[in-house]
């Protein structure tokens, strides 16, 4: 595997490679381009996730503009009905440099699967879609992939156990917890490490990210160039560092992706819709953000580049508090951070901050040429960075 010095910066323009269209069964598959962009955005708006708060993960005003967030290789796969050319499904395949057993390596990510309502019962759509993914996989950009599924999505989790000939194998490897932290009343504790905004030279912060990333599985590779503004919403001005004895011992950044990726409320369950006025009336005193009207986005950002030497709880909580303050100043209501579900540091963060927790299952996906890599994964904890997924 390549060493860190040879890793490519994540801020280079995403490579969206061409691939011939393929027709299988009743569907045609191709990489999405400008002509597909309006249909992609429409399907993202219409694909609503169920729950007390029904949400859509949207990408306005341009579905393709946030590609740099997901990696320097990015492909949006568009499936259309062969007879009508109507959009049937989309999915994405992206690749970025991550730590694998402590060394940089290209790792793919399968995400953003959305199926139009009229095609959800057609099992052959998924079979043909993964066959198209397998053909894309032949470019050699990555040999292993990640996929994340929310724990209560039993249907999707069961589906990933299917062993069709065209599918990669999906192997569950870790449980992750996403914490959505309301920022209104969070303050940096007085007895804490010194927290500062990073200087223009972020090399020491990147060194902290690298040494802690290397002790986790699938953490992203960051370089000083990652903070030059080429990645939407990310710059060195958003980075906060924790210092002890003149040395950086931790860092974290606020990554505001609202300009190209939004979480939009598309409905409420009947009980929550009836009690929404109570939640909103008491929001100022409880610190819980108001529930927006249907059609409005949730104002939240990500805690990214989270790195703490020795998993120091005081450093971790001080950094999260500092990012929450920055988020509040930016007009955000929540910040989200992804952590290993059962780690002691995660328990400490959960006890310190008011939050909503969401559990997910991280899978490693691979075709036969990636099996050797997967078999050699060692026991490092998995921390793939929520904001890049």
Summarize the structure.
The protein is an alpha+beta fold and 389 residues long.
Structure report:
With 389 residues, the chain is an alpha+beta fold. The protein has two domains: 4-174 and 364-388, Gcn5-related N-acetyltransferase (GNAT) (Aminopeptidase); 181-260 and 287-357, Aminopeptidase (3-Layer(aba) Sandwich). Helix content is 24%, strand content 32%. It is built from ten helices and 15 strands. The chain has helices at 37-46, 67-70, 123-137, 154-159, 203-213, 270-281, 283-286, 313-329, 344-352, 371-375; strands at residues 22-24, 27-31, 53-58, 73-81, 87-100, 103-115, 145-150, 169-182, 194-197, 239-244, 247-255, 262-268, 300-308, 334-340, 356-366. The strands form two sheets. The protein has a 13-stranded mixed sheet with strand order 1-2-4-5-6-7-15-8-14-13-11-10-9, with helices on both faces. The chain has a two-stranded antiparallel sheet with strand order 3-12. The radius of gyration is 21 Å and the shape is globular. The chain starts with 21 loop residues before the first strand and ends in a 14-residue tail after the last helix.
